[in-house]
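Interim report, section 4.2 (structural modelling).
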Amino acid sequence: MTIDDVKLIELPKFMDPRGNLSFVEQNNHIPFEIQRTYWIYDVPGGEDRGGHAYKTTDEFIIAIAGAFDVTVDDGKQKKTFTLNRSYYGLYIPKGLWRTMDNFSSASLALEFANTKYDRNDYMDDYNEYINMKSNGEI
Ligand code: TYD
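Predicted structure of the assembly:
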């Protein structure tokens, strides 16, 4: 996978004077079957999250509230996506290093994954990731 496989996807939105509504469906806007949903919240100013790649996990991230940046790195290129609208989702397939930072106050990152939680699916060592990437192992 490379940076080009990362997609910023505009979600349906129903603007309404009573309040707006958006939604996601698996195998549709989210291009996989959802096995897990988690969220990151109460992030203190200046903190960052992520800093790893997954061997097999595809993810889809929505800034349900507030804003934050997601930087994706494929070993050759890096790209930063600012998520600041709840009707956009960022699809990051497996095998890509990602970090999340610049969380605004009261921001809420909602993340969908196509796997159950498994620590063995994580690659936490950036140099090891780069080696595996250049060998085509991931
Ligand atoms: P981690 O993925 O390391 O967070 P981040 O990448 O944002 O820094 O997860 C932090 C902790 O939460 C870790 O102890 C494992 C736990 N966790 C689960 O139990 N289930 C999950 O689905 C996730 C994503 C994390």
